[in-house]
Give the backbone structure.
Amino acid sequence: MCARSVRADRVVIRMYAVVRTGGKQYRVEQGQRLRVERVGEPGSTVELTPLMVVDGSTVLATPDELRGASVSATIVDEGRGRKIQAFDYKAKARVRRRWGHRQSYSTVEITSISRG
């Protein structure tokens, strides 16, 4: 998704935000669907922490400016990632351990971005 739209002879920048969830940062726009680490049950609404909000030429980035800003999203779906398998082995000690991990994910749709 491009944040710029070219109309005739001017460039219009749509509103977007950079949010933090699950230890990662994502650039989001309203209506965008995003796959993040599990945040709740499908159908519920979550508030994501905005780190920066851009609305045209206005940029809100300091904690004082972001005090009233919010990004809300609806959880659309949930699923799991692929299985990661690993094997621990220590030579000459007869220690062997096989383990795996499968991360749970939520698909969220950004419903609103407000400057506050």
